């Protein structure tokens, strides 16, 4: 916002060769958030002959942005890929189910190795979530059996 404000003040100075003598408002759009911004430049008059000696600039933004944030669509896992992941991490999954906690989930390095080996188009976090969900479904199934 400060960079945008500085640009606005510089353009006002270049256009008028001085700061405006009356309060000025201008609306523009933020380059980062695409939200509308309103600039208010108010001159400050000095004691000496009432000349403009400075200014006060204020940037205001709306409280709610009109921009809608779109969430990406959920990628579904192919059953074959899910089975390959299950086989790759079967020791980790079995330990989690045996101990009934998630402390044996694979770490980031193991997950990245799996992604390279199986040529997955997923992030390590997505893969970890998938493994965690596999453990959770097995623990749920165990609870229903007991």
TrEMBL record:
Task: Determine the domain of life of the protein's source.
Answer: Eukaryota
Q: What is this protein called?
A: Uncharacterized protein LOC113472703
Source species of the chain: Diaphorina citri
